[in-house]
Design a protein that fits this description.
Length: 293
């Protein structure tokens, strides 16, 4: 599966429609309209309608980001209505929060299927599933593999760390959680997406965390402010030197294959199929000049 080119995913509060045009004007690969934490209970109904209209309008743009809606949790009073309104609007993905088990994914997938059938949508909406509790992290492989709709697992460090008293700013703690999620996503055959970095003024901290997540094989990072978008895009875009090395490796692999070799020497090191596959994946997922659709 190729990287769907979501290097940056910008959160947009569903109750702040004045921010929608500004978000669409950024270089974010994806916009995530938030109906959950960013919206107070008394604002839910209005925010839902505003987000649905924003998604419908954005679909007609000649070039647009991937459109995601974070709905309220399955056990909330708003989930069913969120799904019905969201599916009718037509986003690319639904971001599902507070997931605890594979059964939760099946419930969400069934709700999406029913809503899609009602509006006659033939293309299934993807599910980006949040992993934000210790129990969810423990069962992340099963959650990621629960349904074909699941496109990725997204790490929620605030919700994961705060109840357990874990220091969010300790890089060792962050690395441990990222590593666990990345392995789970790999076992499930889906992508891993990094969560948000709350300190908007700390650009260096954002860059360091994004660089860490890319080294761990994450596909992209969430942004809570437009100023973070360029930083995420840069962190998750391969550089010219990295791409050149990948091209050389693929070329050397083709020559080795023609010579009947499996493992072969490449620029002073022994490589075999997994290294070649990684280089091929990198080249295949190179960001084009077009925004994702």
């Amino acid at each position: 599966m190729l990287n769907p080119l979501v290097r940056s995913k910008l959160f947009v509060p569903g109750a702040r429609p004045e921010l929608f045009p500004k978000a669409l004007a950024t270089a974010a690969d994806a916009l995530s309209f938030d109906l959950e934490d960013a919206v107070r209970p008394e604002q839910k109904l209005q925010a839902r309608a505003q987000v649905a209209e924003a998604v419908r309008s954005a679909l007609s743009l000649p070039r647009r980001p991937l459109l995601i809606v974070r709905v309220n949790a399955l056990d909330s009073d708003w989930f069913d209505a969120d799904v019905q309104a969201t599916v009718a609007a037509g986003p690319d993905w639904i971001n599902l929060p507070k997931v605890a088990s594979a059964a939760d994914v099946h419930r969400a997938a069934a709700a999406l299927h029913a809503a899609e059938s009602t509006v006659g949508r033939s293309t299934p909406i993807g599910l980006l599933v949040n992993i934000e509790t210790a129990a969810a992290l423990q069962h992340a492989v099963e959650i990621g593999a629960a349904h074909p709709r699941v496109v990725g697992l997204q790490l929620g460090l605030g919700d994961l760390f705060e109840p357990l008293g874990i220091d969010r700013r300790d890089p060792a703690n962050v690395h441990a959680a990222m590593f666990a999620l990345r392995l789970a996503a790999g076992a499930a055959g889906v992508f891993a997406y990094d969560g948000a970095f709350a300190d908007i003024a700390d650009s260096a901290g954002f860059q360091a965390e994004a660089a860490m997540s890319r080294r761990l094989g994450f596909a992209g990072k969430s942004c809570i402010h437009p100023s973070q978008v360029a930083l995420a895009n840069e962190a998750f875009s391969p550089g010219a030197e990295e791409l050149d090395a990948a091209r050389r490796l693929v070329g050397a692999a083709q020559a080795a294959q023609a010579a009947g070799l499996g493992a072969f020497s490449f620029e002073g090191r022994m490589v075999d199929a997994p290294f070649v596959q990684r280089a091929q994946s990198l080249l295949a997922s190179t960001v084009s000049s077009e925004r994702p659709r």
